[in-house]
Amino acid sequence: MNFRKGRAREEPEINLIPLIDILIVVLIFLFLTTTYSRFSELQINLPEASAGKAAEGPEILNIAVDAQGRYAINGTATVFGNPAAFSQRLKEAAKGRKDPVIAISADAAATHQAVVNVMESARLAGFNHISFTTQSRP
User: Fold this and answer.
1) pLDDT tens-digit series, residues 50-85
2) Has residue 1 got a pLDDT over 60?
3) What is the CA radius of gyration of the chain?
4) Residue 86 to residues 14, 29, 72, 102, 125: CA-CA distances in angstroms?
5) What DSSP designation does 102 have?
6) What is d(CA 50, CA 137) in angstroms, rounded to the nearest whole number?
7) Is there a domain that residue 92 lies in?
8) What are the TM regions of this chain, as residue ranges (predicted)?
9) In the beta sheet, which residues pair with residue 67?
10) Range of the domain at 112
11) Could you tell me if residue 60 is inside a domain?
12) Residue 60 CB-half CA count within 13 A
């Protein structure tokens, strides 16, 4: 038996007003608890370029190491001996210039120890700027 034959069934309805009220309260809470950080500005006076002569680059000492463990400073063959003696030769080649750049050109077959010897000698001489040269492939 169907007693509800003539009655229309009501569709359920979602009331959005309580949902909106809750979202407004959450937004107010987020606004109040958010911390705003302020970034301070630095007043910097940048240097201006002049049309004068460009400054000279740093002095470069070219140190070459070949596969047999021979060393050359600026193209002049030099016997290694020990790091202290080689550091003296580096100081002499620098000719009193302060902190030259040591450019190490090592052969691909040279031992790591040969390159470390040059680096140790440069450290003993007080030269901190060391660079390695490479060769591009044809």
Assistant:
1) 666 656 667 888 999 988 888 999 888 888 889 999
2) no
3) 38
4) 88, 71, 11, 13, 9
5) E
6) 39
7) yes
8) 12-32
9) none
10) 75-132
11) no
12) 11
